[in-house]
């Protein structure tokens, strides 16, 4: 099948350790089984209470700075000898954010022949009345099309009324949907927030996620706190032309799941050629624990 989303990006590439971690066993091909594999390898860094595990500070601060699926798997391999398909004890897991769950599932889906991509947006299912900044995986299901799945929700720690392998689109808003809702007056921008850092909220946050979601559709699956171009612009300096560009991006990305085949929407490459949206080699990272710093991406960025 012709698909951009079967091709690994530098960020989703599982690297050379995948076979060794499997211990000679094949990866399952069923998306739900792959999601269970990912859930057994990772714990969210805000789940340490639910796991009853005191995460070492270096892991709490450092694991989620890992940008590449291959590096996640390297760390997993160093923390235990359990084969990849068996759930790990907390101390043998990678200490993740939502983005890490999304990228690793995307990696394994692509590796087993299922087109997949990472989406940046907002979950309505964490706190009533708020949309929490969140990243999930979208995969292609034959006869159905693009389906949202939130592997972080598996395992019983979260109380949701839907199947995490089939998240309703009114429960997870891709960033373009959130932007359009705010711009059209259908949603209050201040209800879009980062739950762990509640002062981060509003249209500037949504603007950054619109750019990040476009980049992910183009094969550059950055960290949630990375920034460049229009993401870094002060709100007072955003021009009408910038807003019009973001409206165009939002229209494209919010409709990306409507394609008849699992191929990259035609306008993604063109939009990522705009210097306000293009991902440069050097970006700014506003890490929760490590502070703001400049990061040079290890692999060439861009579509």
UniProtKB/TrEMBL annotation:
It comes from the Bacteria. This is Transglutaminase-like domain-containing protein. The lineage of its organism: Bacteria, Bacillati, Actinomycetota, Actinomycetes, Kitasatosporales. Residues 96-150 form the Transglutaminase-like domain. It comes from Streptomyces silvensis.
């Amino acid at each position: 099948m012709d698909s951009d989303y079967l091709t690994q990006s530098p960020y989703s590439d599982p690297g050379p350790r995948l076979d060794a971690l499997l211990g000679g066993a094949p990866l399952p091909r069923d998306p739900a089984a792959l999601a269970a594999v990912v859930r057994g390898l990772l714990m969210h860094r805000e789940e340490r209470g639910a796991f009853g595990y005191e995460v070492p500070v270096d892991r709490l601060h450092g694991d989620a700075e890992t940008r590449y699926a291959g590096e996640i798997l390297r760390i997993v391999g160093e923390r235990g000898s359990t084969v990849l398909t068996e759930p790990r004890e907390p101390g043998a897991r990678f200490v993740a954010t939502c983005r890490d769950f999304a990228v690793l599932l995307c990696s394994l889906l692509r590796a087993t022949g299922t087109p997949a991509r990472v989406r940046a947006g907002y979950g309505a299912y964490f706190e009533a009345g708020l949309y929490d900044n969140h990243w999930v995986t979208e995969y292609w299901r034959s006869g159905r099309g693009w389906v949202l799945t939130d592997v972080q929700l598996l395992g019983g720690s979260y109380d949701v009324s839907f199947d995490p392998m089939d998240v309703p689109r009114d429960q997870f808003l891709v960033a373009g949907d959130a932007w359009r809702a705010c711009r059209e007056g259908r949603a209050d921008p201040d209800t879009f927030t980062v739950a762990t850092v509640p002062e981060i909220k509003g249209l500037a946050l949504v603007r950054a996620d619109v750019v990040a979601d476009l980049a992910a559709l183009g094969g550059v699956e950055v960290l949630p706190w990375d920034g460049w171009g229009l993401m870094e612009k002060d709100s007072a300096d955003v021009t009408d032309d910038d807003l019009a560009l973001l409206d165009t991006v939002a229209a494209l990305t919010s409709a990306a799941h409507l394609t008849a085949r699992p191929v990259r929407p035609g306008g993604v490459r063109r939009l990522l050629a705009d210097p306000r949206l293009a991902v440069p080699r050097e970006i700014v990272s506003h890490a929760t624990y490590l502070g703001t710093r400049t990061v040079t991406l290890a692999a060439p960025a861009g579509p």
